[in-house]
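@channel anyone free to eyeball this complex?
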Amino acid sequence: MKILLLALRTLRREWHLPELRTLAASLVLAVVALGVVATLTTRMERGVLASAAELIGGDVGVSAPETIPAPFAQMGEQRGLSVTRTASFPSVAFAQQQSQLLDVLATDTAYPLRGTLLIADARGQQRVTHGPAPGTVYVDHRALVGLQRRVGDTVQLGGRDLRIAGELMQQPDGGELVAMAPRALMNLDDADRAGLLGVGSRARHYVLLAGQPAAVQSWRSWAQSATLPQGGELITPEQTQERMRNAFDRSDAFLRLTALLSALLSGVAIALASQRYARRKTGEVSLLRALGTSRARVFGLLLGTMGGLALPAALIGVALALLLAQGAWYFASQLFSGVPTVLPVLPSLAAAGMGIAVLVGFALPPLVRLADVPPVAVFRASMARRIRRFDVLYLIPAVVALALIWNLSGSAKLAGILAASLLGVAVTAGLLAALLLWIARRIAPGGHPALRLGMAALARRRGLSIVQATALSMGLTALLLLAVVAPALLDGWRKELPSDTPNWFVLNLQDDQRADFSKALARIGANQLNMMPLAVGKLTAINGHPIDSLHFKDERAKDWSDRQLRLSWSDELPPANTVIAGQWFTPHPAQAEVSVDTMWRDMYALKLGDTMRFDVGEGQIDARVTSFRHVDWTSFRVNFFLMLDPTHASALPHTWLASFYLPHGHTEALAALSRDDPNLSLVDVDALLDRVRDIVQRVTSAVRWVLGFSLLAGALVLAAALATSGQERRHEAALLRTLGARRGLLRIAAACEFAMLGLIAGITAALGAMIGGWWLGRSVFHIKDFMPQPLPLAWSALAAAVLVMLLGLAGTRKVTHTPPMRLLRAE
Amino acid sequence: MSGGSRPVVARHVLDVRDVSKSVIGPEGRLDILSNVVMQVSEGESFAIVGASGSGKTTLLGLLAGLDTPTHGSIQLDGHALETLDEEARADLRRRLVGFVFQSFHLLPALTAEQNVMLPLELEGQSDAREKAHAALDAVGLGSRRKHYPAQLSGGEQQRVAIARAFVHSPRVLFADEPTGNLDRRTGRHVCDLLFALNRDHQTTLVLVTHDLQLAERCVRSVELQEGRLAPLERPA
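replying in thread with the prediction:
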């Protein structure tokens, strides 16, 4: 207790020291950077799941092509969960002479349990409601247009006359990309009585549940072990939000990377500041030791001082992180409108823990060595400077840095690349700095006295100069790395969703409709039309063994083999597909061939040369696996797990699936088109596209905002470096002033010194960002044909030199005003 | 004011008239020097002795133009220091003044040669290295040019400091307790060197010390007592 009080007294006395303030600022920054990003990503994660629940209409559910067995609802009710039952099916509605194929969702009056069902009445007044009452129906605008009806009119659906009680404005849509349209909501009992849900109907039945998270989790555990009906599957927020999730996952990785680099830079600043602190305290510690204070007590005192500094700093960091995260959420929350999420505190507390780990890791070595100062050093200061060629303590920051990289990158590959890049930059910067210093020292004697003095100043503190250049290089590398990768990454995201990304899909297009349909689309202003054949079949055997007799480790395999599969074919490898093993189809192969997506390869443990049998219509096709593909499922293109070679597949019974871009405001023309071809199913994905575009835009802003942390961390490194050499600089300035140096000369000398330092750091950082950026861009973020541009990097190196020079001059402004009398007084 | 028996050289390199120095401390105004009057002639060696806190260092700072008096006038080689700003005084120091300190004040990261070159580099002299070699030879450290201060003994470090002080041939050399950090024997050798160079270069030497034996080697000596100058009472 006594030692703690003593430590706190020491801290109060020493708080004015720049190195302690740098330590505190570095810790605050590390905690804020880590905390904001962790809080924001956790909250986004929750938001994604919560908004997924909105899309589903419940927290979790089960669907099947037949009535869901009663236990699924009963087990939910037993756990206190609310339950709703729905069924979806296509059906044709009639109104006088008009007919329209509708995507109908029949619901009970409890629907939806989550999310919003919004309708507009005949006067256009909107209200939130639940499933329609018996005898009524809600239909969307396209259905109203297609049927030429208004709210309050009657339509016939399933042979029953139903009054249109409202125009469907917004509904939980199941989060499925491929959903039928236009939409209608009718009462579940009406649908049942109309025979729309009976045996032989194309209805898919749902039971959705919502309630307390623990109860939901308990039901999920039970449902996962229960036997699902044939073709049934669980509906979870995770699978529902896969696309949105992908956008978040990438931004999450990027934000975490930024926070990580800020934390590591703070660590460098901490290391520099703690070294300076240790040097300053050497005399005091040797005196304490001489007066009989044990080594352990000295160490305890130092730890107490650091603890007294670290705890409030970490708490300030947590408070700031929560404040900033709350502010950031204000903007991000619009992505999850109406989704209530609580500000999570734990991620910021964890960040405080990590920040303290950074402080301990980077500050510990000099403090341990400080406690080792022998009492005899009170007589001979040189005794305190025992140089060790290798000190195992200096591995601690490396271990902490690696642990942090591992923890935050969440990927061994990313961690490896990061660690290697940073180490490479550190070593290169060190070597380059030593080389440039050596050259400068040889060139300088022939130059202006200020240049000579500046270079001499760098050479005088050769070790520190190299450390400074290395630290600055790492800071600048982090910034340039982010500056290099971020625009390409964000540009890549934007390019994935250009403004003319196909926003409509057409299912069930027949061979003889293709030509007319293409012309009709062109007439109404649609473009980017792409058609793919689509056959529906089932996987029945692998290598001649019936699929039911095979056992697979992956539980999904059984589920997929029960489902109807979508098969397609093409001469060319489709965009967003990459062959990673084997070869794409050769023209006219003797035997049928199939190209398999990697998920399917892993699920069924397939190898090149295996044979897969598919039942399609009345026939069968045995296809040899000739290639495996990586498919970018986030690309919003039509993609298939299985693609057959066109020679053999084109004879299979098939329809066509078309995708195209239709500018906004052409919906009525499209509805007319759909009336002419009632067999077609039109699917609108505009809303989903808009949502993902919105995410990308907001994430772009977030990334730019978080970059500021790295900038601050870089400035802290420079401040710490200046504080480290501050006393020495003041002494030198006093001596030089005593010997007659003018202030202007000292300022120019300092400008030369810092410009040189900045140039070394800038050149190294530009090289590091060039190589590291190329590596990260290609290997981690998969940016196609990514090559950082050297010219902007060269300018950045130059700008870094100027910036470091200005910061250095600002930081040493007081030094040039050091009164020469200080030298005499220091005697 | 005169102290020694040797003839006084007519030209005054330092002319101090009625100089006072006060500072404002936590307990109000503190008078460090009061009405100091003294002259030092060209080539003369002049000692200022006094107990700790008597104002020796303050006076040395004022004489060398490191600080300005609260009252009075100091002329260094004909220049009234109190009329010059800090930059002009720096120019004057660079051209006219050399320093030897008790703690040597060598830059630890520079070799002996580089330390000696420093005043010449400040003047932008191109032959700094050659002159530094000569200066180090003169103090007997020609073979230790590439050594860093930490690799030299205290006496050797002070000899490097003396070489640095003389290398640009100053008009006045100010020495602040030049033997304070040295043992008696080494101190004596360093003093021999200091006086020999003073003699050879005709440099005016102003010495601050509490060592009376050292003060006795100077042509004149004065004693500071509570901020006022008094002739030094020499032992019989």
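from a first look: Residues 56 and 208 of chain B are 6 Å apart (CA to CA).
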